[in-house]
Amino acid sequence: MNAAWLPLTALATSLLVVVIIFALPEEARRLRTTINLVAAVVKIILVMLMVRRVAAGHEDIFSFQVIGGVDFVLRSDALGVMFAGLSSLLWLCTTVYAIGYLEGSANRKRFFGFFSLCVASTIGIALADNLFTFLIFYEMLTLSTYPLVVHNGTQKALDAGRVYLRYTLSAGVVLLLGAVLLYTLTGDQSFSSEEGLGDYLNDHRGLLTLIFALLVGGLAVKAAMVPLHGWLPRAMVAPAPVSALLHAVAVVKAGAFGILRVVYDLFGIELSVELGVITVLAVAASITIIYGSLRAIAQEELKPRLAFSTVSQVSYVILGIGIFGPFGTVGALAHLLHQGLMKVTLFFCAGNYAEELGIHRIDEMDGAGKRMPLTSIAFTIGALGMIGLPPVAGFITKWYLGVGAIQAGMYWIVAVLVASSTLNAIYFLPIVHRLWFRLGPSHGKGSWPKEQRLGRLETHGWLLWPMVFTALVSLGAGLFAGLPFSPLDWAARVANGEYLP
Amino acid sequence: MIWRFGLFDSTFEPLASTHWALLAALGLPLLLGLFAALFSPKRALPVALASLPVLASGVVLLAAFEQAGLLRWQWEIAGIHLSLRLNGLSVLLLLMTQVIGVAAALYTPGYLRLSETGPLARWLWPLMGVVLSALSLIWLATDLLTLYIALELMGLAAVGMLMLSGKVPAIVAGMRYLLLALVGSLTYLLGVALILGHWGRLDLQGLAEVIEPGPVAWFAAALIGAGLALKAALFPLHAWLTPVHENAWTPVSALHAALVIKASLFMLLQLWSILLPETFYAPRVIAWLGMLAIVWGGLLAWRTDSLKTLVASSTVAQLGYLMVAFPLLLGPDIAPLPRALAWEGFWLQLMGHAFAKAAMFMAAGNLILATGESTLKGLAGTSRRLPLSLLVFGIASITLMGLPPSAGFTAKWMLLQAMIITQQWWAVAALLTGTLLTAAYVFRMFRYSFDETAPRHRYQPLAPGMDMIALTLALIAFALGLLAHYPLELMHGGSP
Fold first, then answer.
1. Is A169's CB within 8 Å of B432's CB?
2. Which secondary structure element, helix H or strand E, spans residue A495, and what is its range?
3. pLDDT at residue B298, as a whole number
């Protein structure tokens, strides 16, 4: 039985919210908040329904014809609902956080409207079943994030927006060219088709390689792979919830997810290996991982350090693709979720330090653990996870990537992993040390840059609880990785589908 | 190629009800326009009621076409055979004309009330009626004489509308436009005279059978082509376009950029497909000029400081996309698949641009009307106060950029596919460059509007519905992109 309404409704809930938010007046704050939260919860329920249907072996399809030979198709498959789940869960958290963060500031209608559009695009990206549909939502994501990046309207924000557009729109053009070339060669290719493009290998080897380069090159910009990462650190001028969304779910992940789709579902892993592009991906990812970490060490402000850490961490997903074998794939897929959870926590923390204490630079963080214990615990969990220490989720990823690399005989990847973990420790541990072991303003030494008492607890409740929640989930994803429906379990299910016919 | 324009004999006689629908589609805009000159409507409601029968006539014709395929009406007046035909393409273009025409008419009362338009404003209505009637005739006509009459009527009425504001720059720009339009018509007429003298007939279907390639056909095609290219503002004959739009009233600009220049382009393609079928050089020249148009129009729009010039220059670039497709439509040895793709992409692009450009002019007009500023810098900080106008501008510009999910995107997709199959890599490069250039000038405007440090101005509130009309047009351009299958299917219908 095909429940076509399910993927359609999952997409339509967020789109409908966009329309309603734009139709409401700026002052209707309570109503807007209510609609936002209700829709976010409804969306989680819908995605959970989809997960259950996919687990039971149903893949629901909604489609219609756009032009001859090109269809618009939404399909809920295992990989898709995984990303949809991440997106809907973190939408709820970031929405709650954003409501608290933007309390009393201007242009909230515009902000939440485009915020919801951004999330709707990620759901579309997750459920798209062919390259054409994927492209629609991918570009929609580009456009809907621009107003969020420039939200503050300062010179710096507007400049960052311009850089962001330069990178992403040029990438979109490259991607479009690749997509049209592919359609001209092969016609409409569903992501669910079993064959992949193997039939075309003998006659069109060069063209296939070119198409792969165009598609992955276009996607790598959003995935912030070196040297196409320049927009990401600049986009940090956006408000904290936007950074959290950009780094954890929406933009960066959309790029990585797109590369996953292209390699596993469009070309097929065997063909990608045959073309020799997999190794190139692994090398590019390794360079990005090391370069991102090195740049992160050099940053003196908290948010840019986290931004470069994202550059580095997202490429673990790409690295996992580059390791041929189920373990590498499991590591890649699991990291898509794990990195999202941990990174969103870290950004929430950074936003809280900035809002409550006015902290932007790392050397201002001395002793903040005493003043903001929950935030600092959450930050510590996120940081340890990023380094890859058990039992936080990040450990699972690195373990699987390492095992995969050894099985595939790619020992240099193990070296990359070790080097990267060391570098991660070098830029995260000093912060943790400052938080807990240095004496600071809360011990009577100096004062905070700009302290506000936002709530009864250490900060405003709307800012605090989403962060606590995501920190707990990051911890839980590592501790209970063996349970059914954990990120790891689901990643293994997707990988099984990929390697076992 | 000829059959695509419906120049063949029909299978069924049109029913009596379609006669009335035809009469209404051709005559009602004119009549209603005259009526409105006498009783100038102050609100949008009477306009809406009056436009219902016009839209109904379009729907009846659509239904008739879906039932019977190609429709053809024939008369004999004083020994001259006249005929009108309605194929899938004409139905689509007719409906597009009616929808955009009605939208412009609905927009007009509010606009006239809020801006200081002077005593001549009431004459806008009959001129608008003439333009819409003449346009409908151009989509249906099948002989060179009727086409000439309709073209001339449309051109003169358009000049009249553009000069109505009575300001000196508007008059100067209008006079220049008049002069060029007359030169264009005269050149066209010369070509027609040449055809009449040599082959002794003017009906397109008959001409298609007798015309053979040779110096006469080439010379006639060159004359007709030059005349129509001038009227369609094809690069490099576009210089008159921006000053005209700079000073015109908003609904006039919307009608002109969306429909009037498209009519000349439609005629150009139709006549060349008769005079120059399967030619190599002429369409190539147009395509090369089109590439230049994309770049030049984009640069003009990028460098300008005036919002209206930005919107008008973007028309030059967008016409370039259409010009680039000429070799695929008219060139020799094009396989059926790329030709069909290019044909569909061409019209989808044309229709998408028409809706989006009309919406964009209205949105720009709203912004200018509300702020009293017409420069990009003057619009700084508008996102806070005029979010809806800005949103409409944004949605319309997505179509112009050719990003999904818009008609511009789907059309670009099809054109790219056709160009890749025929390996026209230069054209591919031009289309992709066009996307980036469009994004560059559109986001330049948004960059200003998001500026939060700008000083606050007092804003004049807009009449209700002025934004919604523009929004509807912009959303139609979106719907055309996602649901392109249905209109494109219509264009296949009624083939022999």
1. no
2. helix A487-499
3. 93
Of B495 and A99, more confident: A99
Q: Which of the 8 DSSP states describes residue B15?
A: P
Nearest CA in chain B to A183: B417
B422, closest residue in chain A (CA to CA): A184
Q: Please state, in angstroms and rounded to a whole number, the distance separating the CA atoms of residues A331 and A118.
A: 27
Q: CB distance B439–A110 less than 8 Å?
A: no
Q: What is the Cβ-side half-sphere exposure of residue A127, based on CA atoms within 13 angstroms?
A: 33
* Lowest-confidence region among A358-362, B62-66, B379-383: B379-383
Contact A366, A307 (CB under 8 A): no
Which uninterrupted H or E stretch holds A143?
helix A131-149
For B434-472, the pLDDT digits (tens) are: 999 999 999 988 888 888 777 767 778 887 788 899 999
Do A153 and B403 make contact, defined as CB atoms within 8 angstroms?
A: no
* Residue A29, both tokens: 């704050």
User: Is B414 contained in some domain?
Assistant: yes
Give me the mean pLDDT over the B295-320 stretch. 92
Look at A152 and B413 and tell me if their CB atoms are within 8 Å: no
User: What's the pLDDT score for residue B493?
Assistant: 56
Residue B251 included in any domain: no
In a domain, residue B408? The reply is yes
Name the 3-class secondary structure at B73: strand
Condensed to tens digits (0 to 9), the pLDDT of residues B40-73 reads: 888 888 888 989 999 999 999 999 888 888 888 8
Q: Is position B370 within any domain?
A: yes
**Of residues B391, B417, B447, nearest to A183 (C-beta):** B417
The CA distance from B4 to A446, in Å, is: 81
The pLDDT of residue B429 is above 70: yes
d(CA A127, CA B245): 44
Quickly state the pLDDT bin for B496 (edges 50, 70, 90): very low
Whether B398 contacts chain A with CB within 8 A: yes
Distances (CA, A) of B247 to A108, B234, B359, B447: 36, 20, 18, 25
Q: What's chain A's length in residues?
A: 501
Transcribe A341-392 into DSSP letters.
HHHHHHHHHHHHIIIII---BGGG-TTHHHHSHHHHHHHHHHHHHHHT-TTS
Nearest CB among A66, A67, A184 relative to B421 is that of: A184
Region A12-25 average pLDDT: 89
Within 8 A by CB and 6+ apart from A77, the residues are: A54, A59, A129, A191, A192
DSSP string, B429-471: HHHHHHHHHHHHHHHHHHHHHT-SSSPP---PPPPTTHHHHHH
CA dist A30 and A476 (Å) reads: 33
Read off φ and ψ for residue A296, nearest 5 degrees: -60, -40
Domain limits at B428? 288-496
Q: Does B40 touch chain A (CB under 8 A)?
A: no
Do B416 and A177 make contact, defined as CB atoms within 8 angstroms? yes
B267: which 2 tokens? 């005629």
How many domains are there within chain B? 1
Is the distance from CB of B116 to CB of B54 less than 8 angstroms?
A: no
First to last CA, chain A: 23
- For A179, nearest residue in chain B (alpha carbons): B413
3-class secondary structure per residue, B320-346: HHHHHCHHHHHCCCCCHHHHHHHHHHH
Interval B13-49: pLDDT, tens: 778 888 899 999 999 999 999 998 888 888 888 888 9
Mean per-residue pLDDT for A267-287?
89
In three-state form (DSSP H/G/I as H, E/B as E, the rest C), the secondary structure along A80-128 is HHHHHHHHHHHHHHHHHHHHHHCCCCCCHHHHHHHHHHHHHHHHHHHHE
Residues of B in contact with A214 (CB under 8 A): none
Integer angstrom CA distances of residue A186 from A207, A212, B248:
11, 13, 49
